Amino acid sequence: MHVYLDHAAATPVTPAALEAFLAASESAWANAESAHLPGRQAKEALEAARAAVARKMEVPAEGLVFVSCATEGNNMAIMSAAARRGRRNHAVATAYEHASVTQALRHLKTQGCSVTAVPPDASGRITALALAQAVTADTFLVCCARVCSETGAVMPVDELKRVCPDVWLHCDNTQGFLRTEPVGEACGVDSCVVSGHKVGAPKGAAAVWLRPGVSHVPLLRGGRQEAALRAGTVNVPSCVAFAAAADSYAPPPLSLLRYAEDVLEGLPGVCLLRPRQAPHILPFALPGCPAEVAARMLSDMGIYISAGAACSKGGKSEALTAQKLPSQVVAGALRASFAACTARGDIDALAEGLRAVTARLARRH
């Protein structure tokens, strides 16, 4: 038995994405900056992929830059915002941000900036009002992820421009892309990041949208690829595959999450965590059992879930700590995450696996 319930970390490559990748590897293999016919064909394929991803993001294709991963996109957006901050030296972020955002903001602290992290309320949610109250006359940037990768909390990105009109608004939409309501130009964001491997594309292709007409700062210097914002030969086949995956992606139904909640709710030793609003993320904990131990025991049974966010492996969860949860709960926190291919039988298998884990732990004590 093999049950994969870690789709928030990475999704299997879809047939549509694989077919597109192989086709582009044959027909669009040339350097997209070359002036000859094969180069122009690669450029046409790249621009078609850019337009397709931009449509799914609901942003203009102008301003969309293909990058290698969401981490690169987040860093590019934050450093661009910092470069034009003028005399303002304060940034605001939710306590639910990914490490690629929090670490970039910590770097800005070394350059004299201050950062305010806005914690969740008692329900595990972070409101637009709470973020707005953290903004001062010195604030140049607000970072608000669409979905917290560990709790499934959905953030009010679409409300922020109304209450924070004079700051750069950046959204890491890696977990929310195609799984929640779109975060596009109409929401008032000034920059937004999505990643292909969360929606069935091969790893190595992501996109950052930066509001056109504003000066931005490249992280990589060299050639003038991607409007001079991302030097280096563009991985055209992966970008084409990203567009194909996005075009064919279907999110898991919310009913699957509700079923999983019902099944796990009554299990002894299992504590469901809040707020789990996104349709694909179910956070829970085995208090008193280190998460890595439980995840490894389940893996030995062929059941694959996460001990928190994959990018923060081995570290204390800042997102769960911000909820002021007991330390035993934070240490035992796990995450199951779903896709449209996930079946109720997979949830049942997880429940059986958790029963076996808790029973084995009980015997040890």
**Total DSSP E strands:** 12
CATH domain topology of the largest domain: Aspartate Aminotransferase, domain 2
Mean of residue pLDDT values: 94
Helix content: 25-40%
Head-to-tail CA distance between termini: 29 Å
Oligomer: single chain
From the alpha carbons, calculate the radius of gyration and give it in angstroms: 21 Å
Shape: globular
Classify the beta-strand content into a percent band. 5-15%
Poorly predicted ranges: none
Summed up, the helix count is: 13
Full CATH superfamily name of the largest domain: Type I PLP-dependent aspartate aminotransferase-like (Major domain)
> Total domains, how many?
2
Written account of the structure:
With 365 residues, the protein is α/β, with parallel strands linked by helices. The protein folds into 2 domains: 3-11 and 251-364, Aspartate Aminotransferase, domain 1, CATH 3.90.1150; 15-248, Type I PLP-dependent aspartate aminotransferase-like (Major domain) (Aspartate Aminotransferase, domain 2), CATH 3.40.640. The chain has 13 helices and 12 strands. It has a 7-stranded mixed beta sheet, sandwiched between helices. Helix 2 packs parallel to helix 8 and helix 5 (128-134) crosses helix 6.
